[in-house]
């Protein structure tokens, strides 16, 4: 219908009046828009959401205000090329069809704040920068958390309740399944196999750095939460086969520093062995909740999320190993059933919450302040990602090439850093020990 009056950008006030009258606007609204404010075609194309909350558009009667809003949107949608020629699509002010980068905020006429996630790249693909620095920081985060976890495990071991005074708690699974001595080792073998599969996925995935920082961030957060639950309450030992006794470091000759050193040494043994019994690590008191279940569940969810859907046999095998690993933990009577259930629930929920927000940036940006408060790591690590990470993989040749380029860049960065520091030291030494030729002769002060 708008084609009857020619290109919208060339409408004068009279043609705009005729168009609005044909669309059914009231004469008082047409007089306000075109008679008093001289709105033409270019003005309609340049309108944005903020204009509908200000003069004179907010003075329109409700029917005409809604109708003018819909009409404006339709005209702008039909004249995308004209908007581009007029430079209206790249303006920083929020408009109906602005593709700001990476997110733009739209104030709707109903007073609601809406955040829209537009396409961030020219080819329509989501923007997925590797951001290696963030991956390295997430790695440092998980290393620090594992150290804290190891130290907390030493503390809770020393607080383990006396087995004679506090017998094992009633448990519906442990009371009906006999103890299998080798089951816990089988659980750790299963976890090692799943970890190997995850390393292979990381090696060939095109977006491996995004996967790494998500894995490290989630794992570190869950284990940090586990440290709190272990410290809050010490459960009794779940089985009589576990010989758990508090360690007494203090003697009449030892100091507090010596006790701390011994605890740090024991924590290092736990950290070095990744808390696994097949590495010779034996701990007690760290029951609520199961760290082995956390590791199995986290690996299972990451393997199934970042491998193609048609590899259903791998997903089935991953879930089977997750469930069998949990069964082995309970069959070994190393944890109560509630420890395993809580660990699976917390790990799976955190994984789903994290990925739901990261895959739907509009949900995260809807209330960005609350997201930064409750999910500070997520807000930082996912600030540069504005889409779903596709499961794309490199060939072995591409992996080798990328690794070679990475090593070269790393060596060059180290070389530049060394050159910078050496140059800085030379400059400092020159200022500290100037030669006689460098000394300037100052004129004597005239009395």
Automatic annotation (TrEMBL):
Localization annotation: Membrane
GO cellular component: endoplasmic reticulum membrane; Golgi membrane; plasma membrane
Matches recorded under Pfam families: PAP2_C (PF14360)
Transmembrane segments: 135-156, 182-204, 216-237, 287-303, 310-330, 336-354
InterPro entries: SAM/pointed_sf (IPR013761), Sphingomyelin_synth-like (IPR045221), Sphingomyelin_synth-like_dom (IPR025749)
This protein's record includes keyword Transmembrane helix: yes
Sphingomyelin synthase-like domain location: 283-356
Domain of life: Eukaryota
A GO molecular-function descriptor: sphingomyelin synthase activity
Cytoplasm in keyword set: no
GO biological process: ceramide biosynthetic process
Key words of the record: Lipid metabolism, Membrane, Sphingolipid metabolism, Transferase, Transmembrane, Transmembrane helix
Family, per entry: Belongs to the sphingomyelin synthase family.
PANTHER family: SPHINGOMYELIN SYNTHASE-RELATED PROTEIN 1 (PTHR21290:SF25), SPHINGOMYELIN SYNTHETASE (PTHR21290)
Protein name: Sphingomyelin synthase-like domain-containing protein
Species whose genome carries this gene: Rhynchophorus ferrugineus (Red palm weevil)
């Amino acid at each position: 219908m708008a084609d009857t009056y020619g290109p919208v950008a060339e409408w004068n006030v009279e043609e705009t009046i005729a168009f609005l009258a044909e669309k059914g606007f009231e004469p008082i609204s047409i007089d306000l828009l075109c008679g008093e404010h001289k709105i033409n075609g270019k003005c309609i194309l340049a309108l944005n959401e903020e204009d509908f909350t200000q003069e004179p558009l907010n003075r329109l009667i409700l029917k005409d205000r809604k109708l003018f809003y819909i009409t404006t949107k339709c005209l702008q949608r039909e004249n995308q090329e004209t908007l581009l020629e007029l430079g209206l699509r790249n303006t920083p002010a929020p408009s109906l069809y602005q593709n700001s980068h990476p997110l733009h905020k739209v104030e709707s006429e109903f007073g609601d704040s809406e955040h829209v996630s537009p396409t961030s790249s020219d080819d329509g693909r989501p923007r997925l920068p590797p951001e290696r620095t963030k991956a390295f920081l997430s790695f440092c985060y998980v290393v620090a958390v594992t150290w804290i976890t190891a130290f907390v495990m030493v503390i809770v071991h020393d607080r383990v309740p006396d087995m004679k005074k506090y017998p094992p708690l009633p448990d519906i699974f442990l009371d009906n399944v006999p103890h299998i001595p080798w089951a816990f080792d089988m659980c750790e073998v299963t976890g090692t196999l799943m970890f190997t599969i995850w390393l292979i996925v990381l090696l060939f995935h095109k977006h491996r750095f995004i996967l790494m920082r998500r894995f490290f961030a989630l794992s570190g957060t869950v284990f940090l939460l586990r440290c709190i639950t272990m410290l809050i309450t010490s459960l009794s030992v779940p089985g009589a086969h576990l010989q758990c006794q508090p360690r007494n470091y203090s003697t009449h000759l030892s100091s507090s520093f010596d006790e701390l050193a011994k605890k740090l040494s024991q924590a290092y043994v736990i950290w070095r062995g990744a808390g696994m019994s097949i590495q010779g690590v034996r701990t007690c008191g760290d029951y609520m909740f199961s760290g082995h279940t956390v590791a199995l569940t986290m690996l299972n969810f990451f393997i199934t999320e970042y491998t193609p859907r048609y590899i259903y046999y791998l997903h089935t095998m991953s879930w089977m190993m997750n469930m069998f690993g949990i069964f082995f933990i309970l069959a070994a009577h190393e944890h109560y059933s509630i420890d395993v259930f809580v660990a699976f629930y917390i790990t799976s929920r955190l994984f789903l919450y994290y990925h739901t927000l990261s895959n739907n940036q509009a949900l995260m940006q809807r209330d960005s302040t609350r997201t930064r408060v409750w999910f500070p790591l997520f807000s930082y690590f996912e600030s540069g990602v504005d889409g779903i990470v596709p499961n794309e993989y490199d060939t072995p040749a591409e992996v080798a090439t990328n690794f070679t380029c990475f090593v070269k860049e790393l060596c060059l960065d180290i070389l530049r850093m060394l050159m910078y520091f050496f140059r800085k030291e030379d400059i400092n030494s020159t200022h500290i020990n100037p030669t006689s030729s460098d000394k300037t002769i100052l004129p004597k002060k005239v009395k």
